[in-house]
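Private note to self, pasted from the team thread so I don't lose it. Backbone tokens:
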């Protein structure tokens, strides 16, 4: 029961104090779940981030569900997922009641300008952390470099290109190279 409460309140704090969505939450989730609590390893965090990005649903919820399941099975997944969702639900419910008046407050408008900058920094921090933990091999680094170039070109040239397509292309290239390496030694052994 202690682990369920710990999962709920850890992810509740993450959900309550992290603005900007899943990418901004990655750094906070990693700090709490990997560095402070040791619930998952850095490699698992990297894997769950990739899997969470590739599956339907918000990335933070997928990370919470994975971590909760790993620690306490289905009940842990439920506790962690509820913890991360509950603050957003309450905040959005309260904002929806007062939405017209909420956006008119200059204090709120200025606060959100600062939050936008902080969210960008959190996303950048998560990206840098993940890049540092990437395998120091040519293929992942090449895919990372090419993906960055393509996404920058898409943004600067205002092309209509989905980041999901970019992920699928990167996965296909990696899979083709992996498959090619597996097939090549067998062909040489036959000679």
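Design output:
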């Amino acid at each position: 029961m202690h682990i369920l409460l710990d999962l709920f309140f850890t992810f509740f704090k993450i959900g309550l104090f992290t603005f900007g969505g899943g990418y901004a939450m990655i750094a906070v989730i990693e700090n709490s779940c990997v560095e402070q609590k040791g619930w998952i390893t850095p490699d698992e965090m990297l894997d769950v981030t990739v899997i969470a990005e590739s599956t339907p649903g918000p990335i933070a919820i997928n990370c919470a569900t994975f971590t909760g399941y790993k620690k306490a099975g289905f009940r842990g997944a439920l506790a962690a997922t509820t913890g991360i969702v509950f603050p957003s639900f309450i905040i959005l419910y309260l904002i929806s009641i007062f939405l017209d008046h909420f956006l008119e407050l200059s204090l709120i408008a200025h606060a959100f300008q600062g939050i936008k900058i902080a969210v960008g920094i959190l996303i950048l921090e998560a990206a840098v952390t993940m890049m540092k933990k990437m395998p120091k091999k040519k293929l992942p680094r090449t895919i990372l470099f090419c993906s960055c170039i393509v996404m920058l070109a898409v943004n600067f040239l205002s092309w209509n290109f989905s980041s999901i397509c970019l992920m699928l292309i990167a996965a296909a290239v990696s899979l083709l190279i992996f498959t090619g390496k597996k097939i090549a030694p067998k062909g040489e052994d036959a000679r």
